[in-house]
Amino acid sequence: MIFRKKILLYTLISSVAVIPVSAQHTMHQMVSDGAWRMVPMDMNMPMLPGLEGVVPVVSPFLPGSDIDVSSIPAAISSEIVRLAEGDTLELTVSMVRRNVANREVVMFGYNGQYPGPLIEVMKGSTATIRVKNEIQMPTTIHWHGVRLENQFDGVPGITQKSIATGEHFLYEVKVPDAGMYWYHPHVREDVQQDLGLYGNLLVRSPDSAYYGPVHREEMLIVDDLLMDDEGILPWGSEAPTHALMGRFGNVMLVNGQTEHALTVSSGEVIRFFITNVANSRTFNITFGANRTKLVASDVSRYQREQWISSVVIAPGERYVVDVQFESSGQTIIANTIQAVNHFRGEFYPHVDTLSQISVSDGREKNDLDGEFELLRENIEVISEIEQFETYFNQVPDYELETTVRVRNLPISIVISMESDTLYVPPMEWNDAMPMMNWLSTGEQVTWILREKYSGLENGDIQWEFDQGDVVKIRIFNSPDSFHPMNHPIHLHGQRFLVLNRDGNLNQNLVWKDTAILPVGSTMDLLVEMSNPGEWMFHCHISEHLQAGMSFNFTVREF
Amino acid sequence: MVTFLTLLLGLVAESDFKKVPTSSLVGENQFCRASSVPYYGFSLITTKNVPGTGQGSGKVELTFIEDSPFGVSVTDDGSYQYGLNISLDKINIRGRGELVAWVTTRDLSEIHRLGTFGENQTIQGSVDWNKFLVVITLEPDPGELTQKWRGPVVLRGMSRSGMMHTMVGHGVLQEENCFAYGYGG
Of the candidates A325, A354, A332, A377, which has an alpha carbon nearest to the alpha carbon of residue A216? Predict the structure, then answer.
């Protein structure tokens, strides 16, 4: 443990604006000597008594810190790559130079792009991607949500050896389901994904009426990045920092940009494919006063389209929404939340602008008003799910609960946490305790998935199924722990339905691969074990995953 | 809590039992009973101000509303949307009126009427505030749609989120100067 000077307890806001270092820590008498820099904080906060300048117990990591930044190629915007059966995409993982919030920073990129290329394929086809690793860390690519052949799932130590620097790996990604998917590393996601290694995989249906008509489509990859006026805050080298709550950023990114903007015509209907690639942040995305129709999620369309006022999207999830921009003028796409100020014990409204939308006076000529008003019932989805109804009322095959264990955290943090957890919100929309969160590392925090009856935890859990089994899994997010928190639960290689939450039957089902579990809640997943192999089951908050919150299950070929 | 009680008692003192015309229950919330999230439930505590209710109690169970397609129900301003299942126990008002449930903001600046309890002394409603109070009053004329209660408060309780309070001046921060952070004075 390295001691410096005084340290803070909490901060108020994860702000869009990058807070100058000089304004962050003057009153706190913090010093930014050495490689660690203190996380951005609100200055109107008291010191936590009894602690003197603690920094994380792991060493800091920033890519390219020993390289002349100007020698690194500047990143370029994402390109669309349409792959036909038999085509091969060469994908190189490398360092890129980017300007984010007016800071020149070194990040990672796929083919030098941010985000990585938008790969577009037809349902049922096989995309072949040859990955070359040119970063100084091993890596892999996980094809999130795709029910592909196990050996191409991208999990090091399970489905493949990680790709060492200078080496290649050939992925053959067969895509059985239409929808929006994404790809990212499965090696230190908290670092590599945060540094820009993510991209979308759009699987088109051969049915031209798979979705309703719109004027155009837009991709919205939402993310956040933790920065100060010197650039990106370092990550933990041996283990992640921010292990309690995950690493929230203070700079919002849409498609890798801080100033995303669109120009649309009055009356125009736009389909947004939204993907949350943030390490930890769940977004509540609003589209101003514009009517928003929910169409699809991870692995399928909904049984029934429905009107919504916002999109709650957790890390790893995808949603497809159609939005009609009716009134001319300026509007925004925003992350609209009630943030928590733990210090003052208050909720407060907070809005992050994600995209500026200019709606022109000129009315869209091709009027889709009638089609947009229609809420479609997706008979194919309804019929397919009906085949699983016999399993809806079965008792759970397995029950899990989530919890956390900590050790060797500074005692003042432990005391503060224990006295401050009389109330824990269902969702952590913002990092309301950035100092304590920063100081909690994967060496001190273990996040746990625990089997209810056996008591087995994480990697000790052994589940085996036969291909074709339909399994009900009940998961309870226990509020009785040191720091309860929401968890986006992700299963590799399979699809599932969220049958009910807290005993409430889900009235509008959709096939998922990732689902949010708020604190205190219970959800029942009905998993179709359709895909043989050894697969991961984990929390998709990157730091929770790195802090242990995962296990593997096997589906035997039948 | 002191402020809360003072406000409640103040309203009780101002209330009267005058009968006024009734109308339909506009804004009445109907909510299907469902399993709750026990952690966020809370108790209703008797004021002991109404005969026959001194031994009474109640509880409020919270659910996320059912029609959300997401894992958590929030409004477009990010507030949680909860279903409320309220039940009472050992309350005997002996025909002196009806018990009415209300939900209010903590400063009582907004009050919503949830409805009148039936014979089984349960009621369902909803709320989209993150911190709130549930107040049960005895109304001589429950059909009247008043903006706030007129009868005496029988029971009241605060959402669990009310436990989230300022840390200044107590606990590990007890030595901090409250005035420096906008408290006191």
Answer: A325
**Of A245, A305, A296, the residue nearest A275 (C-alpha):** A296
3-state secondary structure of A371: helix
CA atoms within 13 A on the CB side of A278: 28
Residue of B nearest to A45 (CA): B181
Distance, CA of A87 to CA of A127 (rounded, Å): 7
Q: Quick one: which H or E segment has residue B7?
A: helix B2-14
How is A450-508 classified by DSSP, letter by letter? Answer: EETTT--BGGG--EEEETT-EEEEEEEE-S-SSS---EEEEESS-EEEEEEETTEEPSS
Give the residue from chain A lying closest to B162, CA to CA: A423
CA-derived radius of gyration, chain A: 23
The whole-angstrom separation of Cα A335 and Cα A52 is: 35
Cα–Cα distance for residue pair B153/B146, rounded to 1 Å:
15
- Other beta carbons within 10 angstroms of residue A380's beta carbon come to 13
Report which of B153, B157, B156 is spatially closest to residue B12, judged by C-alpha positions.
Answer: B153
* A338: nearest CB among B79, B165, B166: B79
Pairing verdict, β A329-341 and A283-286: antiparallel
* Residue A418 near chain B (CB below 8 Å): no
The tens place of each residue's pLDDT in chain A, 558 residues long, gives: 332 333 333 332 333 345 555 455 544 445 444 589 888 876 666 667 666 678 999 999 999 988 899 999 999 999 999 999 989 999 999 999 999 999 999 999 999 999 999 999 999 999 999 999 999 999 999 999 999 999 999 999 999 999 999 999 999 999 999 999 999 999 999 999 999 999 999 999 999 999 999 999 999 999 999 999 899 999 999 999 999 999 999 999 999 999 999 999 999 999 999 999 999 999 999 999 999 999 999 999 999 999 999 999 999 999 999 999 999 999 999 999 999 987 788 899 999 999 999 999 888 778 998 999 999 999 999 999 999 999 999 999 999 999 999 999 988 888 878 776 688 999 999 998 888 899 999 999 999 999 999 999 999 999 999 999 999 999 999 998 999 999 999 999 999 999 999 988 999 999 999 999 999 999 999 999 999 999 999 999 999 999 999 999 999 998
Q: Degrees (nearest 5) of the Cα angle A24, A28, A30?
A: 80
User: Does B166 lie at the interface with A, CB-CB under 8 angstroms?
Assistant: yes
Find which of A501, A505, A519 to mutate to test the B interface (most B CBs within 10 Å of its CB). Answer: A501
Distance from the B159 Cα atom to the nearest Cα atom in chain A, whole angstroms: 10
* Separation of alpha carbons B122 and B101, rounded Å: 10
- Stated pTM of the model: 0.91
What is the distance in angstroms between the Cα of A467 and the nearest Cα belonging to chain B? Answer: 28
- Maximum pairwise Cα distance, chain A: 67
A436 near A415, Cβ under 8 Å? no
Nearest CA in chain A to B159: A423
Give the Cα separation of B174 and A358 in Å (integer). 50
Residue A298 CA to residue A303 CA, distance in Å, equals 13
